[in-house]
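Changelog entry: the Galactose-1-phosphate uridylyltransferase record was regenerated in this release. Current contents:
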Amino acid sequence: MNTNEISELRVDELGAGVVKRSTHLADGRELFYYDDPGTTLGADRRVDARDLDPRPATAAMRQDVLTGDWITFATQRQNRVMLPSADADPLAPQSPTNPSEVPSLYDVAVFENRSPAFGPALAEAVGTAPEAADAPRGLDDLAHLGLGRTRTSIGRCEVVCFSPDHAGSFGTQSVTRARTVIEAWADRTAALSALPGIQQVFPFENRGEAIGVTLPHPHGQIYSYPYITPRTTRLLDSIDRTAPDLMARVLEFEQQSERVVLQGEHWTAFVPFAARWPVEVQLMPHRHVPDFASLTAEERDELAPLYLRLLRGVDALYDTPTPYIAAWHQAPVHVGRDTVRMRLELTSPRRAADKVKFLAGSEAAMSAWTAEILPEVAAERLRAAVASITV
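Regenerated C-alpha cells:
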C-alpha cells in the first residue's frame, strides 16, 4: 500500500462551514470526506492503493406473497468483520498495518458499503459496478402479488463514520462534529434520493452489542431502498384513513402531554402515547419537513446540541451505556412528501440495568405487543436524565 500518493478530489462547500471532498476507493466505490469547520486536516487525501476483489454482484430480493414484503438475500454479508480490535478496525484511517476502508485521517467519512444489502443498478462511470439483471419496474410492479417473484435489490448502502476514533457513538461527539454529521446526512439524502430507482432513504445508527452491532467504531449507515418500506407504507395508510395533517396533529397532541422529554425552538422530543419499547422516544421538527435535505440552517443548528442531550440522557438512565437503534424516518422520495414528516425514533430493549426485553411469541410472530412500562413513567425518568446533561 503506497501511502504517499495523493488522491484527486472534488471539493464542495456545504452549510455551516463544512467542506466535502469526494474521491473513490480502489474498487471504484465512492468515498466522501466531510471536514469540520476549522478542521486541522490538510486539503489532501491519500489514494486507496489496496488490491481489492471486484465488487460483488447486486443482491436479489424475493417477495413474500402473503404480506407483499420484499426480502433481500445478501449472502455476501455472512462473513462480515465481527468486533475487531483497534489495530484491525476497518473504519479507522488506514495505517501500514491496517488496510482499512478509509485511506486518510478524517473528521467524518462516508463510503459505499463493500457488502451491501442493496447495490447499484447500472455500471457507474468508473466501470466497476455490476449491472442489475432484473431491476424493479416501479412501485406498481413491486406492489403486484405473485408466487415466486424476484427482483434485483437495486439501491445503495453507505457507512457514515462519525469519528476516526475506534470506540464511541454519535452521543460521544462534540456539537461541532454532530453538526458536521447532520450536514453529511442532508447532503447524502439529497444525492441518494436523486439516484434512479430509489424510493426511500433511511439514515440510522445501531449502538451496542445487545442490538447486534459488529463494529464498536462510532458510525451509522444510510440505506437507500428500491421500495417504500413496510413501516412507511402503514404510515401512509394511516394518513389516508385520517387526515393529511396527521403528523402535525400527533406533535400537537404530544406537546400538550406529560410525555415531553425535551423541547427547543424547532424540535420536540417525546415518549409516544403508545410506546412499545422500554425506552422509546421520538424527535420531531415543529415545521413540516420531509427529510434532512429540507431542513433550514437554523433547524440543523439546533438539532446538533439537542440530539446530543437526548442521547446522553438515554445513556444516563443506567451506569453503563444504553444499547439503542436511532432510526431517522424520512418521507419517501416520490410520494407522501407533503404529509410524511421526518422524525427520529430511538428505541432500546433495555428495561432495567440488567434486563433486556426480548421479542418472543406474541411480538415476534404476530406483531402484537405488550409493554411493561407506561410511557408517562418512561418519560419522567428520561426527562430527569436529560435534565442532568449539559452539552
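The chain has two domains: 10-227, 232-387.
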